[in-house]
Design brief:
The structure is a homotetramer of 384-residue chains. With 384 residues, the first copy, chain A, is of the alpha/beta class. Helices cover 33% and strands 24% of the residues of chain A. Chains in contact: A-B, A-C, A-D, B-C, B-D, C-D. Chains A, B, C, D: Residues 6-133 form the Gfo/Idh/MocA-like oxidoreductase N-terminal domain.
Chain lengths: 384, 384, 384, 384
Amino acid sequence: MTTNKMRVGLVGSGYMGKAHAIAYRNAIAAFAIPQWQLQCEMLADATPELAEMKAQELGFNRSTGDWKRLINDPDIDVVDICAPNFLHKDIALAAIAAGKHVYSEKPLALNADDAKEMTEAAELAGVKTLVGFNYIKNPTVQFAKQLIERGDIGDVVHFRGVFNEDYLADSNLPFSWRLQKQFAGTGALNDLASHLVQLAIHLVAPIQSLCADLKVVHQQRPLAQGENGVGHVENDDQAHMMVRFANGAQGTLEASRIAWGRKNGLSFEITGTKGTLIFDQETLSELSLYINEGNPQTQGFKRILVGPEHPDYQAFCVSAGHGLGFNDMKAVEIRDLYQGIVHNAPLWPDFRAATQVNIILDSVVESVDKRAWVEVEQYDGEQK
Amino acid sequence: MTTNKMRVGLVGSGYMGKAHAIAYRNAIAAFAIPQWQLQCEMLADATPELAEMKAQELGFNRSTGDWKRLINDPDIDVVDICAPNFLHKDIALAAIAAGKHVYSEKPLALNADDAKEMTEAAELAGVKTLVGFNYIKNPTVQFAKQLIERGDIGDVVHFRGVFNEDYLADSNLPFSWRLQKQFAGTGALNDLASHLVQLAIHLVAPIQSLCADLKVVHQQRPLAQGENGVGHVENDDQAHMMVRFANGAQGTLEASRIAWGRKNGLSFEITGTKGTLIFDQETLSELSLYINEGNPQTQGFKRILVGPEHPDYQAFCVSAGHGLGFNDMKAVEIRDLYQGIVHNAPLWPDFRAATQVNIILDSVVESVDKRAWVEVEQYDGEQK
Amino acid sequence: MTTNKMRVGLVGSGYMGKAHAIAYRNAIAAFAIPQWQLQCEMLADATPELAEMKAQELGFNRSTGDWKRLINDPDIDVVDICAPNFLHKDIALAAIAAGKHVYSEKPLALNADDAKEMTEAAELAGVKTLVGFNYIKNPTVQFAKQLIERGDIGDVVHFRGVFNEDYLADSNLPFSWRLQKQFAGTGALNDLASHLVQLAIHLVAPIQSLCADLKVVHQQRPLAQGENGVGHVENDDQAHMMVRFANGAQGTLEASRIAWGRKNGLSFEITGTKGTLIFDQETLSELSLYINEGNPQTQGFKRILVGPEHPDYQAFCVSAGHGLGFNDMKAVEIRDLYQGIVHNAPLWPDFRAATQVNIILDSVVESVDKRAWVEVEQYDGEQK
Amino acid sequence: MTTNKMRVGLVGSGYMGKAHAIAYRNAIAAFAIPQWQLQCEMLADATPELAEMKAQELGFNRSTGDWKRLINDPDIDVVDICAPNFLHKDIALAAIAAGKHVYSEKPLALNADDAKEMTEAAELAGVKTLVGFNYIKNPTVQFAKQLIERGDIGDVVHFRGVFNEDYLADSNLPFSWRLQKQFAGTGALNDLASHLVQLAIHLVAPIQSLCADLKVVHQQRPLAQGENGVGHVENDDQAHMMVRFANGAQGTLEASRIAWGRKNGLSFEITGTKGTLIFDQETLSELSLYINEGNPQTQGFKRILVGPEHPDYQAFCVSAGHGLGFNDMKAVEIRDLYQGIVHNAPLWPDFRAATQVNIILDSVVESVDKRAWVEVEQYDGEQK
Ligand SMILES: NC(=O)C1=CN([C@@H]2O[C@H](COP(=O)(O)OP(=O)(O)OC[C@H]3O[C@@H](n4cnc5c(N)ncnc54)[C@H](O)[C@@H]3O)[C@@H](O)[C@H]2O)C=CC1
Ligand SMILES: NC(=O)C1=CN([C@@H]2O[C@H](COP(=O)(O)OP(=O)(O)OC[C@H]3O[C@@H](n4cnc5c(N)ncnc54)[C@H](O)[C@@H]3O)[C@@H](O)[C@H]2O)C=CC1
Ligand SMILES: NC(=O)C1=CN([C@@H]2O[C@H](COP(=O)(O)OP(=O)(O)OC[C@H]3O[C@@H](n4cnc5c(N)ncnc54)[C@H](O)[C@@H]3O)[C@@H](O)[C@H]2O)C=CC1
Ligand SMILES: NC(=O)C1=CN([C@@H]2O[C@H](COP(=O)(O)OP(=O)(O)OC[C@H]3O[C@@H](n4cnc5c(N)ncnc54)[C@H](O)[C@@H]3O)[C@@H](O)[C@H]2O)C=CC1
């Protein structure tokens, strides 16, 4: 089921909502998408007032304080979910029921069971789905994928991934929904490690088994301004995993939301039998590559600045090394969404792929309970 | 003279034309500019066919193969000049004559005399002008300016600036208009050092005297495909300047278009009596800052990732360190243009400021001829 | 038991033997040690000829092809063991029996039982012991320790350590004793992770429990030149650990000897409740430090170049940032050895501390067998 | 004239004196120099007491408070001058008169005339000379030289060198001999730029013409503790040069002693027709190299860690990337000195080569006086 245009209904206009709004426009000019085919049609937020203000700010034609109205609006082709995690399921199921395509922010759901329910509903309804794991859309990361696939670093034998930020490092930051299981699910695991897990699967192979460790470091926090007392933090500040991939490679994955100094500290190092590559999102437009070839005297890590020779860069700039930003990755994601919805291209990572991430996150919790390695269910290979 | 909207007429839709097109859209969502107030109205290019194709790709409503028609179109409020250097003057003078605001790419003109003529015409007509020295719009560079102005590094005593790229490093790249004086003016000097000069003035003080060196390294190049023979390169591959600023500080500025490995190698290091700051455009979202204070044991250059605490970053992202791209700087520039045209804010760097850059570039040529230091005419302080 | 001089008997004059020889001399001038108090007296190697050649090259007075003669020589005060791992035990026990102080390279032994036997013998005999975990002697790392101890980064909540090299990354490198359990013990674990474990304990707290993963990636290798067939690799190319420290902090430790591009890739990142510090041995003379204090606008990782303000640097150079090398760390270690032997200062890490490392490495193997977390015996806190 | 041993007489035991003392010992073990052939024989300093104390600290056999006695001692083969600049001439001329080889710290003299007098005396006497421009002895820099000589980066077209430190950045640091022309000569120029000039000539080609700028930024400083009033600084805090090399290449050289944050900030970037190399002394064990070859997609600056494949590294360590320190460069220098004196190898940079540096520094002053370009006398090519 495709349409000849993609009129967007955005639900939630906070941090990610704005990033999407910028990216829709960015994508039109960068990827030569006809304006009439990509329209920022309606924006829903928690109240009509907020929604109306944001619609004006972000350049949406209409607004509503009730996401159900957006979903059922006949002039909406795709529902874009930028609401908090715990709302993803209800909004997505309703959108699917209304026959709309769904573009959801990550993590897809609070747990694997919900994610499977969403996936199966979408597949049954035959709507297109896409989940916002934007880091894999970065031209630099796409290039890393290319290098791996064409064998430049040989067979991958090791993956180390870290996603550290410090947005909750200050223990005086107030209690919030992000710290409660019912609203956020797990903590750094769901919020940050979800990206890493998706990257690891994408770049290496399925994760077959894992052993993990989670810790709540700051166990209580003051209630938000105006309230007295403390809130008890329910989910992990720091998360660790050791994994084994389907191809035999080993890996370690770590995430923290209390790692002072790290702002978008998503990095990975992938070692193969012929070479190694290193990426760090804080310098998102470069990749370091070491290949064991040629004169040993001149071997070293090459710092490659992303440029027109690499996937999807040229849409933004014809000169190498001029640098892409966070929102540019989202523009690539939206180009994909457009290609999927308007030109029936395959969309990835779809709900099924994102469910696999949720399954792995659930396995982490299981491993922590058992203090031992656990096997991981394979779901994303099944259908598609 | 302001209008209540800014309908854009873009002349030239190559490298910079597309960057502008992306930025217009980007700015709407990032800076909450009402859509009806900022419209991509018409695009002119060398032929009607090219113009029409590009208008569709870049999301402009109408197109023309004749920039004079664009200039005289009643629904155009501002003429955006992204055509090659030698056309800037004619287009700008015509636009001014038609009472249009003018937003021109740098360098403003091929020489200081032309630039002065353009400046005086614009000031007489009372139209707004802005020149695309985008690097100063980068939130990181704005922050550098802030640090300097509030005295964090004390009195500036030294500026070193380098702008190196390798776009002509390969001596087999064909001859083109960029290598001819009548079309491009000087070489690396006009193309790259112009940015550096503008940054130096902006961040330090007026340049009062200078001594320079220019060199054509690859003196001939093959003619473009299909043609036989060689073309004789008329302008500099490498340019050097030693300068003295009005505040007594010393500086060195260098540019090269044949510096292998440098892709957007614009960097500067500014030393003051209390500290030093370092910037490198290839990692455009960070600034290194050294301040002589506190325990000597823990002194060092701080790598500051640009974030919401810094000027104009928050429009793009609420989280620090997520990284801005080249086109985001242009979006800030366009926000300024909008504020100038629709809300009558002062615009900077305007034609007068850009003329000062052209004057300095002319002084470079004079110094090279004399093999000695020369004094620099001060023009931009005069009116405004 | 101290002596008024330290006449050294070196056993093994390969890689580390030479590093020690350089460092003995270096230490004399750097730390103003009287020449007569520190003498390079005798060198033992596998054959008399080799020993004699090396003694001349490395500046030792006498030589022998039999380490037992060295040990029993009356003019030797300390036996310095730079022979392969499997010889450490026999040489050390014999030296202790002869009443000599012992300075051994790491890892102390092939397993914890051997290490305990050596420790107990040394303590009973009352000789001084020191083990060559040189990385903690680096002024930069000493400074890191200082920062942690005085609370600059608050309470440590996380340690991530990696020690990657590529000395066996090429799968065509020949089979050798390093790949056999009886001669080397475990692989990357014993050779590289031993340093990391020692650093982690030193900088954070005792390791109380762990879960680990080991893998032999290149399972067979060609026999050494001249021989036909392949050798079967018995020990790990890659080693992973998740740990919990006595203070509640979490950690991950990894080592690899097949990580292309990493030459001395020992790095760690330590996060506390107030800040973070980062170290990388490939740039051994700098430390990155982030502290959450002051204006958020100017927060960032500070790159601190080690200098005279930091421990033990000034002995080498009065100017900051001039850089120390690998052998300089050994000179600090030898200064400690001298202080211990001639001036009865406490020596650290001694055999008992090094035994704790061996215990942890044994726990790794146990965890891998059980595919689960294991508790770690605490030995080094017991006596001293 | 050679001797079969090299008994050293050290004059001056401050910063450099100690560095030399460490390096003599380091060199014995690193380069397998027989102990009896390299002896730290006598140390002279300003007073007998100081000399005696230092001799003990630094491991010299004898001491004297009068450098003339050292020079005339029959058991001294080479006089090593680590006294302040203004003493170099007298000590060197006396040593030469006594038939001793001379190893002098840089800059050779306060001006070119003195340097020529010293050179001619030494050549007439037939003694060996060496000047302590240690940065070119760094294995990393030797490797850079190799790369250039074998054409890896093509023909050199550009050199940019900077030598910035902050040892006088604090304007409250007291007045001293370093700030007076009669004792120090020029300022940052003599102290820091001298190294850069020597490197530039060594790595590129003779300097044929130059244009320069010098500035005293902090014009007065408090007198040293105990004294009242201020001292008037006579020499440059900041020095700039634009140069043209004999091969046609352009260059810029800068030095500052007031550049906050730079500790040993000697860096250079050399561009050729095929590639570029970058070096920074603050990370002295690595070189960045860009070569225009192979797939454009994987081009980038390679960070090469110095190792046994590179000149003179293996003497210190058999593993790559383990890092050399400042004093290790001096050990290479001393190996050269030993080879020259004991084995009659050519020594470089000798007094003649160092005189060329002094000539260029004098040309800088001339250019500043004239505010114009000047031609440079070529002296070092004449004899040898
Ligand atoms: N891909 C990425 O890199 C990132 C993804 N995210 C994901 O994006 C989602 C949103 O997170 P943020 O934008 O950071 O949160 P936010 O708190 O900034 O924004 C949430 C928005 O949802 C709105 N909202 C709340 N309840 C609503 C309701 N009932 N109906 C309609 N709107 C409602 C809020 O008013 C707000 O506009 C989360 O799932 C998060 O995990 C967040 C940050 C980065
Ligand atoms: N601010 C910055 O960082 C940069 C500024 N520039 C400046 O932008 C300007 C354009 O440069 P590029 O975009 O690199 O050149 P380009 O060659 O990529 O594009 C020039 C455009 O002008 C069009 N054009 C040529 N003749 C025309 C005519 N008679 N009428 C209408 N259109 C015509 C061409 O067809 C083409 O679309 C130059 O002045 C350059 O200095 C260029 C690159 C970066
Ligand atoms: N602290 C550190 O960073 C490092 C420590 N090491 C440790 O140093 C020790 C030696 O390793 P390498 O120097 O790399 O090995 P190597 O193979 O380079 O040297 C071993 C030396 O021992 C000699 N040897 C062998 N059998 C002997 C015998 N029966 N009697 C006397 N000498 C004998 C060999 O001839 C050779 O001279 C090992 O325990 C290793 O783990 C090694 C490298 C780095
Ligand atoms: N190659 C390099 O990288 C460096 C070279 N140098 C050079 O080394 C030389 C010495 O500089 P520093 O060691 O920094 O100075 P310093 O002030 O630390 O040491 C000078 C030494 O000379 C002694 N001295 C003074 N008058 C004397 C006399 N009449 N007789 C005997 N000794 C006397 C002083 O007591 C002191 O021990 C200078 O020429 C300087 O340019 C200095 C630093 C680095």
